[in-house]
Amino acid sequence: MTQEPRALPERLETDAESVERDLFRLVLTIVELVRQLMERQALRRVDQGDLTDEQVEGLGLGLMHLEDAMAELRGRYGFTVADLNIDLGPLGTLLAE
Hints:
Blueprint: H1 16-48, H2 53-77, H3 81-84
Helix pairs in contact: 1-2
């Protein structure tokens, strides 16, 4: 079952608040994508065993702090992780589930 592509509305929301919210959503999406990529790379390095215990601890704490900061920023604008997950059509969604 394929979904029909959504048509663009005849008019785009161009009021300052809407533009600011959409821009903030895009920035948070990019930051979330980079956070997920960093997390995957950190797990790969941990699995390879080329990090010291202190480095593993530091990576874990850093990623936890980044996730907390992202949750706070999403909450400030009322976004969920799903709101940041851009649909790329036949390619699927941008972010990992």
